[in-house]
Every structure is written in structure tokens, then in C-alpha cells.
Inverse folding.
């Protein structure tokens, strides 16, 4: 997560602070070596339709090449694999449900943004969001990035994204339009982030369910 | 001085001609002015207008028109670049440039955001009558894990496209229905407000432009062509390396119009120039040139006036064909000039006319019979060509009778002996070497030589014969199809029923089979109204499943929802909404009123236009289409018809090509009858023989050339009959007087043939395969007919003495 957030910052800061661009580029280049990042997450969802927040927790694996593995462990077990071609849902009993990203309007874009967000795909994010950065990661201070959708299509699903952290990304806030019933706010807290060179064989097997790996 | 010697009767004739010419000129002027563009012929460039209605079912024709209109008045562009931002910027700049031209009604690059509320609205209201196919099967097969579905709905890390609030849809059943809607039949996806397709190395941005009028409006075609060319140039300057693809009926129609105008100029100018040269070469005087031009000009103008008067417009194929009619229309005048030349100092304008009158008239009648055969063809375009030829030839013939005598009173100053020296030598040689037996032998040998060619003849009935599309346009269209998945709309299913519901049910039966074809990879998908609005039976079944699997155990439902994080009132809201919706059905009209339905409106035909008061829907298959598989799918379904316009036209071509042989025989019999009246059965046969040989040899040569036989080749053979027999008639009539006159007549015949061959020969270079084949066949047929025409001399009673 560390690497990806810093890389995000690199991109985000570029239009804001030209002076910092070089520094951030160096940091990003240093972080490029890590192909895979793992973290523990706790997700808290708040919706107008809920009487209490929904809390779930589990593991997150991001592979630059393969996609995102989202494994919920509490309150029930469920794995989501977001790949280049499709989203696969794997229940605790092993049953698979999958949906091609191109079959549903908007889904491909949501998927791409989600991956771009976690993968610091600067081009995709820049295309899709207006970016504001506060704080200064270079001085080891706290930082925050606000992303607001540029396009009306994305704004149909998403009001905004917020990333904040210190040495690592610690907090992701996703504000979605709540299907016409107010705003849904999802907070993801990430702890114990660390990088790896490649996905484990088990992780790789899951990624393979979600389609061909993206072009490097 | 010469006119002073014209008799009063001749002067009256000339005045009548002037009056007629004035009427024709005024009519043409008025017609062109009425067309809105003075100086321009009202030209029809729509090729569908050429084709006859092929479907027995008028509703199918209506559906064809509706589908063509849905696609026809739109121009589609893809702007491609390696960088997505470059493509987006270039596409927006291109759209702005198109808009600035002010030609289009609307240019869309940025798609308006669809309000998800609006999309889901009508479906949320009717959600208890709707289920996705997979859910229907799951609910039908037994109890479903509602708790699991609830968890998935609530805890999913991201939204799967269009979703409904958990208050309205706690189990995600409505979400699944929405996700299953075939909204994405195209491969395009929305991205940053643009529709985008991606290939390995490029991002393509979709831009569409709507025309303010018909794609077949010539002025609009021109304006659109200019606007696109300008915008393309601006794009190339501002964004070098960006690729632009475009397609749309308007571009094809524009290309067809330009090609037709080019060909009219080429064929018209070519045959006119060649004709004048030939005339001058033979007569060495400018007078026949001027008179020939007057007579032909009158004929063509009258043909345009009559055709536009009857049809309201001229089809571009008629125009191109009309340009080649020049060579035939001059024949009558040429015969008169030949008589003038042959008479030498003894020329009497009226006596000369009287002498050639029977030949001219018989020739006109046989030509008209030849073109009359075209009238029998069910093609509006061919009927128009026939009418054009009727009017043009008759007027040119009339000119000879009315105008020419008063303008050609002075005897020819050219020595006829010198002028006809070449044809005379040919004629003498023929008479010396070719007696009856040798003629028969030659004919037999030629037939034997032609026979293997006949065996190599093959048919071709492809509808694309009518026109050759510019390859660059076709390539761009294919690329756009591949990138976007837009279908060609040529094949579709027509589903009819007495009620809206009957149509939907039949569509659902068809859909089951089409799903099977999709699974086998035969088609990539299909568009149908029933995938947006299920039939009443299916809605009832869906509601029954909702009742049985979700609402039957109300207490259990309350417990399940109370346990979840959802607000406590959700269970009550659900149960109340379910019972409130009892007896409500989603109707096609409800759906048609949603913005979601806008791109699919052509799939439903309004009930009033059906005639029978029934309803009809259209199911359009997508992707590469195997007609046989689709036909099998529709075979035993009542009310379902596979409509394949291109296929129907090809079948029609084939049927008429096969009947063509019979028609040709019929036309020969008819002409033989006319000849018998004048010459008696034996001599009529001799007169017709060169033409029969010409047709037989032309078929053989086409076979040797490997040119496939089409309906249009057969039509040309009808004209070989109409034109070819003229030469024999002229020659035999000329020979009836004296040897010098015969030579002059032969000179005239050769001249006629020369002009005819010139114009039809030029037609053979037309870019329209139908016209090119037509021209080639005529070139071969008429060429042989004129070479063999002296045969009549070998068989004429005088020749034997």
C-alpha cells in the first residue's frame, strides 16, 4: 500500500507542486520494484438504509499485473477477485459466480478505477478524477488526497474518494450515490501493509479465475 | 436560302418540332426549379429505391424501412489514437468542428449522463414481475439462500453496475435483472463521458452525427462531405497521427452520386465526341453534326422530362444509362443522312424521308419491343430505364420526321462514291464470297465455336452487383463494425401477433433458440423488446416465484431482515410494496416512454401501421450472421419470419435470370412476328438470323471470358435484339432500292453501330457492375450483329438473281 499511495501522490502532486515532482518521482521509482502489496482491512459501511454500520474485515492483495483480491473473513467468508476481464465471487463453500466486466454498463469503468486507485495507474486516475492533495509526505507528515469524478458517468456511482495516511496508506473513504437514497459512505482502514515480489501460488490460482493478466 | 426551298408542309413540321422542343425545355426547366436546385436534375441516389418490394408481408417492408431509417440518417465516426487522452481530445475537437459547420442537426461525442434513477425507475416499480433468467431458474428449482444474498448485497466491496437501494431490493434480485438487460450490445463502453472502444494499440472514441434530412438529398450529401473533409483536415493538423474512420449511408450515397456524375460526364462526353467525329468522317460536313445534336438533344431532354414527370426524380442508374442512349438515339438521324448522301444530286428531302420511313419505323418498333422487355422486369429502376429509352428514342425518331427534312433540303455536295467506298468494298466482297451456303456454314461454325463457352457460363445474383461501393468506405465500415459491434441490420426477425402479449411470448420462444445459437457462437447476441419487457405469462410466473420463495414466509422474512443491519421498517416496506403491486404488469408502452428505450425504439412497430390491427416486433441478431441457422430457428415458430432483404433480392435476381431465357425467346418471337408482317416468314427469318447469331455468340464469349451471367446481362441481350435487328432491317430496306443506296445504307448502318458501340462500350467501364455488364454484353452483341448484318443481303430475293 505504501508504494501505491506514494506513487499516487507522485501523480497527484505533479500538477500542484512542480518542485516536488522530482522528489516524488524518485520515491516512486524506488517503489516500482514491488509487484504485490498485502494488507489487513477493516471496512465500515454506512448507508441511509442501515440502522447500524456494517463492519467487515479481511485481507487485501493487490497485484499490479493481476488485479485485486478482496477476501472478507468477518462476519462471513467471501472472496472477490477483480481481474482484467471479470469479477469473480467465491463463497465459503467454493461456489463461483462471475460477471464479465464488459457485460454491464459502467462496471468496466468502476473496476478500472478501483484497480487504478490501488495500482496508482496515474493516467487512468488523471483521466477520471479532479485531484487535491493536502499535507506533505516528503517530510514524513500526514497527507491526504481527495479524488472527485470528472465524468458524469462515474459520478452516477461515485461521489468521491479520499485517501490518507502517514508512512503507509491507512484510510480509504469511498462515497457512493446510494441508489437514490442518500450517500453511502464506506471507510476502509488498512493495517500491516507490506510488499512482496509476486503473489503466492494460492493467490495466483484465484487471480487466474478472473481472466488474462493485464499487459505489463 | 435552303430553308426558302423547303415546302410549306416541311415548314409546318419544323414549327411543330420547335413547339414540342419549347414544351420539353420549359418542362425540364420547371422540373429542375421545382427540385429546389435550378440547373440540377432531381437525382435519386438511394439504391433501395432500385429494388422491388421483395417481401409478401407489407409489415416486413415497413420494418425494413424503419430499420434503414434508424441507421440511415446517422453518420458514425471513430477517432483513434494510441493515447486515450489524445483520442478524447481529438474526438471532442472533431465534434466541435463538425458542429461549427452547421450541417448536422446534432453531433454527439460526450454522451449525456443517464440518470440511474430514471433507468431503474420503471423496473423498480415493477420489480416483483421481473427476474433475471438465472434467478428464475434458481427460484423455480427450490428455496434460495436469502440470507446469503442479503449479505452479498450489503458487504460487496463495489457496486456491480446499476444497483437499487437495499431498501427496495435487499436480495439483489432487481440488481440481477438490471445487470442482465442487454444494454451493451455494442462493444463500446462509457469512459469520461465518451463512448470508447479499445484495440491492442489504440483507443477509439465514438462520435455520431445526425443529419437534418434524408441521406439521399444531394445538396445535403455535398454539405456533409465538405464539412467532414474540413473537420478531418483540421483534425490532421491539430492532432497528427490520429486516425479517423467514418461510415454512414450519406457517405455511400455521396460516393454513388459522385461516381454517377463522373460517369455521365465521361460516357456522355465520350460518346458525343466520338459520334461527332464519326459523323464528320463520313459526311465531311458540319450540318449533319448540328442536326444530329439537335435530334439527340431533343430526344434526351424529352426523356428526362417524361421520366421526371412520371417518377418525380431520375435514378442515378437511369442517368448513367441515359448517357449511353445518345449513341442509339442518333441512329435515326444517321439513316436520314445516309439517304441524303446516297441520293447525291437527286436529293428530295421528303422523298428521301418517305423511302427510309418504313425502315425507321420498324427499327423504332423493334427497339421499343427490346426495351419493353425491361418493363416486364419487376425492378423500378429497369422500368424507369425503359421509360427513359421509350421517350428518348421516340422523340429522336420524331425529330427525323419533323425537323430534319426542312433543314436538309440541299443535296449533298460530297461524292457518294468516295464516301461509301469502304462499305461498298465490304459489301461487294460479302456478295462475291458469301452465298447462302457459305453464310449457313459460317453461322454453323460460329455456333460450334461458341458452344463450349455456353457450358462455362455461370450465374451470379448478388445484390451487390447493382453498385460497387468504394473499397475505402467498405473497409472503414468493416473496421467500425468490428470495433463497435454495430450490426448490418440486413437480416432480422419479424414477430407478429394479435396482441402485444402474443408478440412478446413469440419473441420469448424465439429468444430461447437464439440463446442456443449465441452459446454455439453463431451470433454474438440479439436485440429484442421482450428482453426489456417480459410477456404476461413470464411476468406472472416471476411474480409467483417471488411469492413462493420470498414472501410466502412473511415471519421468516421479517426475522431475516430484522437480524441484518437494515432499518427495521425494510421488511414492512417490502411486504407492503409486494402486495400493492399485485395485478400490475409492465407494458411495452411503459418501457417505450423511458429514456432507456430510445436506442431500441425501432424494435417495436406501432400497431396502427400494421394494417391488420395487430402488433409486431423486430428481433435483430448481432455479429456475424449465418442465415441458415437463423432461418432454422424461425422455421416452425408461428408468427415469426426471418426477413433477409439482401437474400430476397438475390433470390429475385436469380428467379428472373432463370426466366430471362424464356423472356428472350418470347421477345424474339414477338419481333419475328413484326418482321413477318413486312417481309413474310422466310425473309423475316433471314432478317432476324444475324441477331440470333449475335446473342448466341455473345453468350459464348461471356462464357469464355468467365463473366458470370447476371440478370443485367440478359437485359442487355434483350437490347441486342432491339438494336441488332435494326441493322439488318436498314440494310435490307436500303438494298431494296439500288446498289449505291445499299452501300450508303451500309455506311449508315456502320455509322450507327459505331456510335452505339462507342456509348455502350464506354458503359462497360462504369463502376456499377450491373451497368458495366450491361455495357459489355451490348458491346459484344451489337458488334457481332452489325458484322453479320450483310447476311440479309445473301438471302434477299435480289441477291439471288
Amino acid at each position: 500500500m505504501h508504494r501505491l499511495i506514494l506513487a499516487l501522490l507522485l501523480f497527484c502532486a505533479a500538477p500542484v507542486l512542480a518542485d516536488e515532482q522530482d522528489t516524488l518521482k524518485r520515491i516512486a521509482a524506488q517503489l516500482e520494484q514491488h509487484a504485490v502489496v498485502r494488507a489487513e482491512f477493516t471496512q465500515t459501511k454506512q448507508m441511509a438504509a442501515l440502522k447500524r454500520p456494517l463492519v467487515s474485515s479481511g485481507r487485501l492483495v493487490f497485484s499490479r499485473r493481476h488485479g485485486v483480491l478482496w477476501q472478507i473473513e468477518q462476519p462471513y467468508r467471501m472472496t472477490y477477485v477483480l481481474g482484467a476481464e471479470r469479477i469473480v465471487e467465491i463463497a465459503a463453500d467454493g461456489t463461483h459466480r462471475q460477471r464479465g466486466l464488459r457485460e454491464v454498463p459502467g462496471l468496466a469503468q468502476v473496476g478500472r478505477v478501483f484497480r487504478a486507485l490501488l495500482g496508482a495507474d496515474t493516467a487512468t486516475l488523471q483521466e477520471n478524477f479532479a485531484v487535491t492533495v493536502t499535507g506533505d509526505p516528503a517530510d514524513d507528515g500526514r497527507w491526504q488526497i481527495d479524488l472527485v469524478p470528472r465524468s458524469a458517468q462515474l459520478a452516477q456511482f461515485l461521489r468521491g474518494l479520499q485517501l490518507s495516511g502517514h508512512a503507509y496508506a491507512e484510510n480509504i473513504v469511498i462515497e457512493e450515490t446510494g441508489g437514490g437514497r442518500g450517500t453511502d459512505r464506506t471507510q476502509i482502514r488498512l493495517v500491516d501493509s507490506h510488499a512482496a515480489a509476486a503473489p503466492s501460488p494460492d493467490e495466483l490460482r484465484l487471480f487466474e479465475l478472473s481472466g488474462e493478466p493485464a499487459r505489463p | 436560302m435552303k430553308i426558302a426551298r423547303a415546302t410549306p408542309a416541311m415548314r409546318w413540321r419544323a414549327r411543330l418540332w420547335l413547339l414540342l422542343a419549347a414544351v420539353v425545355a420549359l418542362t425540364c426547366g420547371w422540373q429542375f426549379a421545382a427540385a429546389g436546385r435550378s440547373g440540377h436534375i432531381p437525382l435519386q441516389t438511394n439504391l433501395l429505391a432500385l429494388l422491388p418490394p421483395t417481401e409478401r408481408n407489407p409489415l416486413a417492408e415497413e420494418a425494413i424501412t424503419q430499420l434503414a431509417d434508424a441507421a440511415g440518417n446517422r453518420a458514425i465516426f471513430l477517432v483513434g489514437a494510441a493515447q486515450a487522452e489524445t483520442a478524447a481530445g481529438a474526438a471532442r475537437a472533431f465534434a466541435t468542428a463538425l458542429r461549427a459547420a452547421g450541417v448536422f442537426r446534432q453531433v454527439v461525442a460526450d454522451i449525456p449522463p443517464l440518470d440511474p434513477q430514471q433507468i431503474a425507475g420503471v423496473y423498480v416499480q415493477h420489480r416483483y414481475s421481473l427476474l433475471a433468467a438465472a434467478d428464475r431458474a434458481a427460484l423455480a428449482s427450490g428455496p434460495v439462500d436469502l440470507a446469503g444474498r442479503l449479505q452479498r448485497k450489503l458487504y460487496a466491496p463495489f457496486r456491480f453496475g446499476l444497483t437499487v437501494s437495499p431498501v427496495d431490493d435487499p436480495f439483489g434480485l432487481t440488481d440481477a435483472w438490471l445487470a442482465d438487460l442487454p444494454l451493451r450490445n455494442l462493444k463500446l463502453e462509457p469512459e469520461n463521458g465518451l463512448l470508447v472502444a479499445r484495440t491492442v494499440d489504440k483507443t477509439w472514441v465514438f462520435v455520431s452525427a445526425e443529419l437534418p434530412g434524408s441521406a439521399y438529398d444531394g445538396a445535403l450529401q455535398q454539405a456533409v462531405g465538405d464539412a467532414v473533409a474540413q473537420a478531418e483536415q483540421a483534425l490532421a493538423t491539430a492532432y497528427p497521427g490520429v486516425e479517423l474512420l467514418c461510415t454512414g449511408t450519406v457517405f455511400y450515397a455521396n460516393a454513388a452520386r459522385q461516381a454517377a456524375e463522373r460517369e455521365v460526364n465521361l460516357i456522355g462526353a465520350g460518346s458525343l465526341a466520338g459520334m461527332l467525329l464519326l459523323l464528320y468522317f463520313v459526311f465531311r460536313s458540319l450540318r449533319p453534326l448540328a442536326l444530329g445534336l439537335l435530334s439527340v438533344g431533343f430526344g434526351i431532354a424529352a426523356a428526362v422530362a417524361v421520366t421526371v414527370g412520371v417518377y418525380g426524380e431520375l435514378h442515378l442508374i437511369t442517368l448513367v444509362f441515359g448517357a449511353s442512349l445518345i449513341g442509339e438515339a442518333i441512329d435515326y438521324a444517321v439513316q436520314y443522312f445516309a439517304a441524303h448522301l446516297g441520293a447525291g444530286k437527286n436529293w428530295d428531302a421528303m422523298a428521301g424521308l418517305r423511302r427510309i420511313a418504313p425502315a425507321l419505323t420498324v427499327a423504332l418498333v423493334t427497339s421499343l419491343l427490346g426495351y419493353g422487355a425491361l418493363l416486364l422486369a419487376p425492378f423500378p429502376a429497369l422500368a424507369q430505364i425503359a421509360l427513359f429509352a421509350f421517350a428518348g428514342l421516340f422523340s429522336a425518331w420524331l425529330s427525323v420526321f419533323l425537323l430534319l427534312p426542312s433543314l436538309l433540303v440541299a443535296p449533298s455536295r460530297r461524292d457518294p462514291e468516295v464516301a461509301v467506298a469502304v462499305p461498298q468494298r465490304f459489301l461487294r466482297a460479302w456478295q462475291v464470297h458469301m452465298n447462302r451456303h457459305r453464310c449457313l456454314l459460317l453461322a454453323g461454325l460460329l455456333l460450334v465455336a461458341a458452344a463450349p463457352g455456353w457450358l462455362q457460363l455461370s450465374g451470379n445474383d448478388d445484390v451487390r452487383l447493382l453498385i460497387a461501393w468504394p473499397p475505402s468506405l467498405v473497409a472503414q465500415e468493416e473496421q467500425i463494425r468490428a470495433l463497435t459491434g454495430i450490426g448490418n441490420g440486413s437480416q432480422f426477425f419479424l414477430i407478429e401477433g394479435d396482441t402485444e402479449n402474443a408478440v412478446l411470448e413469440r419473441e420469448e420462444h424465439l429468444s430461447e433458440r437464439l440463446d442456443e445459437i449465441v452459446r454455439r457462437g453463431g451470433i454474438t447476441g440479439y436485440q429484442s423488446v421482450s428482453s426489456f419487457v417480459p410477456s404476461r405469462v413470464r411476468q406472472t410466473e416471476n411474480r409467483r416465484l417471488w411469492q413462493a420463495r420470498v414472501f410466502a414466509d412473511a415471519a421468516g422474512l421479517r426475522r431475516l431482515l430484522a437480524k441484518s443491519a437494515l432499518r427495521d421498517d425494510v421488511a414492512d416496506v417490502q411486504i407492503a410494496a409486494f402486495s400493492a403491486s399485485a395485478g400490475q404488469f409492465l407494458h411495452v408502452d411503459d418501457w417505450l416512454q423511458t429514456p432507456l428505450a430510445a436506442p431500441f425504439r425501432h424494435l417495436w412497430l406501432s400497431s396502427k401501421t400494421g394494417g391488420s390491427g395487430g402488433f409486431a416486433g423486430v428481433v435483430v441478431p448481432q455479429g456475424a450472421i449465418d442465415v441458415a441457422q437463423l432461418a432454422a430457428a424461425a422455421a416452425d415458430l408461428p408468427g415469426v419470419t426471418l426477413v433477409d432483404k439482401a437474400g430476397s433480392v438475390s433470390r429475385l435476381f436469380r428467379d428472373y435470370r432463370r426466366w430471362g431465357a424464356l423472356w428472350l425467346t418470347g421477345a424474339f418471337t414477338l419481333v419475328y412476328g413484326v418482321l413477318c408482317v413486312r417481309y413474310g416468314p422466310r425473309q423475316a427469318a433471314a432478317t432476324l438470323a444475324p441477331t440470333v447469331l449475335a446473342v448466341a455468340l455473345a453468350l459464348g464469349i461471356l462464357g469464355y471470358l468467365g463473366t458470370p451471367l447476371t440478370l443485367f446481362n440478359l437485359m442487355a441481350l434483350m437490347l441486342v435484339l432491339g438494336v441488332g435487328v435494326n441493322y439488318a432491317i436498314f440494310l435490307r430496306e436500303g438494298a431494296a432500292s439500288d446498289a449505291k443506296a445499299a452501300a450508303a445504307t451500309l455506311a449508315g448502318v456502320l455509322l450507327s453501330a459505331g456510335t452505339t458501340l462507342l456509348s455502350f462500350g464506354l458503359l462497360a467501364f462504369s463502376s456499377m457492375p450491373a451497368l458495366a455488364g450491361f455495357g459489355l454484353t451490348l458491346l459484344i452483341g451489337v458488334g457481332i450483329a452489325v458484322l453479320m448484318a450483310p447476311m440479309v443481303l445473301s438471302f434477299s430475293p435480289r441477291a439471288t438473281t
About this structure: Residues 1-31 of chain A have pLDDT under 50 and may be disordered. Chain A touches chain B through 49 residues (CB under 8 Å). The helical segments of chain A are 2-16, 21-31, 107-119, 122-128, 152-155, 201-208. The CA atoms of residues 13 and 62 of chain A lie 23 Å apart.
